[in-house]
């Protein structure tokens, strides 16, 4: 890699580096303010760092999927997503979302929820953990539909793991096949969920309803996107390719965030430390997304997108399995990152074999 290319790549992460410095400094200050010791300050600093790394590792596939959608959006809507969208992702999902769960679950006001997070973090964490099942069911179902919709695509021409993807692509001619698959999986998992003898069927019923809400949310977002896409024929060029994709990406980002937000409580019960750590990670996701779009990385590495969607499917299954047993978040993050790494390696091998002089690669959809 030449020095100019390296500088160009690093420049995409300028704001992420700035936010990292500010966030870690704020985390260290919180640690000092709470404990008054160097050890306490170092502990909170370390937790913020681990949370940021956890968020980045869980969100490699998120950045790739974002870039895939963004490349078809107009510059105006790209910029709106990368400014408004990141504010929603950082403040909405990392701060407002956990508070909203406590507000609904505990039946208290938003101000009381903030006071609870600051004064009684153990109780706050307990409420969040109790809400894990419906969150996992909703988010897992939405992400599963995202992943399956990519592979159940009759127009998909390029396949990474051919013996699987060719069959899924051919099966896409059967309308609703991915929905049927997800519904069967929902019923299967609901039958495996252990119930409290005092309240039989409550847990399984909660899982089914939450999963159905996730499925309906995906379908509604798809319908809205389709209606907006159809109406674009009568819109000015500057307004095309935007709102439908924007809504889709926001819901997708929210689904990706569920796992990280819930998992963060395994490391700390302090909402503000969680917000700092995950917020830092979200900034790197934003930077990676911009780099992937502007440098055309998805077109250059033809299997990278495939790896991301396989990672999404695995994450969705893990979220389902987590309703039965605990799976450490590090396994989730490393699993997705490993798949994307293998996809990148396969893409590089393909390019060396078929485009030795740097010829333009074909996009994943032909």
Automatic annotation (TrEMBL):
<feature type="transmembrane region" description="Helical">
    <location>
        <begin position="38"/>
        <end position="60"/>
    </location>
</feature>
<feature type="transmembrane region" description="Helical">
    <location>
        <begin position="307"/>
        <end position="325"/>
    </location>
</feature>
<feature type="transmembrane region" description="Helical">
    <location>
        <begin position="240"/>
        <end position="258"/>
    </location>
</feature>
<feature type="transmembrane region" description="Helical">
    <location>
        <begin position="264"/>
        <end position="286"/>
    </location>
</feature>
<dbReference type="Pfam" id="PF04332">
    <property type="entry name" value="DUF475"/>
</dbReference>
<feature type="transmembrane region" description="Helical">
    <location>
        <begin position="12"/>
        <end position="32"/>
    </location>
</feature>
<keyword id="KW-0472">Membrane</keyword>
<protein>
    <submittedName>
        <fullName>DUF475 domain-containing protein</fullName>
    </submittedName>
</protein>
<keyword id="KW-0812">Transmembrane</keyword>
<feature type="transmembrane region" description="Helical">
    <location>
        <begin position="81"/>
        <end position="111"/>
    </location>
</feature>
<keyword id="KW-1133">Transmembrane helix</keyword>
<feature type="transmembrane region" description="Helical">
    <location>
        <begin position="172"/>
        <end position="193"/>
    </location>
</feature>
<dbReference type="InterPro" id="IPR007427">
    <property type="entry name" value="DUF475"/>
</dbReference>
<feature type="transmembrane region" description="Helical">
    <location>
        <begin position="205"/>
        <end position="228"/>
    </location>
</feature>
<feature type="transmembrane region" description="Helical">
    <location>
        <begin position="331"/>
        <end position="348"/>
    </location>
</feature>
<feature type="transmembrane region" description="Helical">
    <location>
        <begin position="131"/>
        <end position="152"/>
    </location>
</feature>
